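Re-run requested by the PI after the first attempt was lost when the workstation crashed. Everything re-entered from the original request form. Ligand of interest: nicotinamide-adenine-dinucleotide.
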Amino acid sequence: MTGLAQHYIAGLWRDDGAPPRPSVNPADDTPLGRYIPGNAALADEAATAARAAFDDGLWAASPRLRAQLLHEFADRLAEAKDDIADLVVAENGKLRSEAMGETMAGISESRYYAGLARNIRGSMQEMAPGQISLFHREAAGVAGIIVPWNAPVTLLVRSLAPALAAGCTAVIKPAAQTPLVHARVMQCLAECPSLPAGVINSVNENGIEVGQAMVASPLIDVISFTGSSRTGRKIMEGAAATLKRVGLELGGKAPSVIFEDADLDLAVRQLTHGSLAIAGQMCAAAARFLVHDSVAADFAERMTAGLKAVRVGPGADPASGMGALIDTANQVRLMRLIEQAGDEGRMMLKGGPLETGAFLTPTLFGIDDVRSPLVQEELFGPIISFETFGDEAEAVAKANATVYGLAASVFTRDHARAMRMSRAIRAGTVWINAHLRLFAEAETGGYGQSGLGRLHGPEGLHDFLETKHIFMEPGVA
Ligand code: NAD
């Protein structure tokens, strides 16, 4: 599996002669291919192409063409799904089932927004007899889309599909860790007969130069960013100079609250997957187990056994239950955090590396101090804290005790309590007796420092639309 990931600007694949860099498989360090790093000048060129395609006006006024493109894209993703899933496994390290799941989710998302593209409507109001105001929902302009490495297919489509459906044109910047996956997905887009040149452009990263240039560009109207809260803050600062709109899907520290009446077997099943999906490198993964005192010992025993039983190994091996981390730098960073967890808390299951590759087995540690950075900060790996509570009020207080508010789950058989908890927890998504259930139709987004705005669902369009008031004086010929 080899390849060279280039830029795609104004309908052409571009290689400006910069020395290519390697992309490697985190499971075994083998080289997979190379990518051409970008620069600020290429980002400006891409923004100029996207601006011209938008200002031309036809794209933004052609909802059926936009729907057609999104269907063609979904068709091509479907044809290439095995190739793409293999490449995601090789370049990201996740399980084949996770890679196929994210590819299928991208196809579903593209078809969903193909439907919505034909249903963007404004409204009308009569202000006084014969005085009519129209409220037109129109495309916000050029969208800059910055994609992370942990789900490079789904998280691209999650921003790109609503942007295109709304009538925006786009400049995309993939993550430097997954350029080959991105180039394969871009190939699917480039092959679509309905794609006008300049509507979608993509420039590979070089450090943070390309992302910064996009955020600063006066030609880009909206930034749709998925990544860490730390970078989200920088993007908001950078966007202030041009007063750009920003949609931010940021970090999380999802608590899972387990009450005394919960089905503990169900909770263990849901949370084993819920905490270890993509080796815990998922914004909405369960990162904190909050357990009622009366079932803490029982749940601890079952959960530890559940995590221990997960076989960590290459994503391509069907026997693996959890794949590799994104790279060895993250493996080293997480191993330091495991030592810190042993010092500050009670080690319940200590994770460690395998003989080779960027692997790390799961860690569960008990901790009482909610102010510890281990509880407060996103760790982004297979390391979960185990905390306890005595009553519902304490559960709510602890669940809301971090700056994040992306997602949470509640395990109980008491429906009234489940509804109370779902209202009291300040997070964009609350799952009841489940964890990590995501749908193209269902909005996701953050409270607090987990972000601004929503993606997926009808509200996913809002970041990419403006409302224009049009008033016509009556009686003027
Ligand atoms: P990151 O914030 O380190 O980087 C994201 C991207 O931003 C990178 O491609 C980088 O090149 C770019 N970037 C960095 N500094 C920049 C700047 N100043 N201006 C413009 N661009 C800049 O995140 P990551 O490591 O790629 O991804 C992991 C993070 O993403 C985690 O925090 C995770 O929770 C979050 N995430 C959130 C969601 C969600 O839906 N809320 C989904 C997936 C991942």
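Saved to the shared folder this time. The first helix runs from residue 40 to 55.
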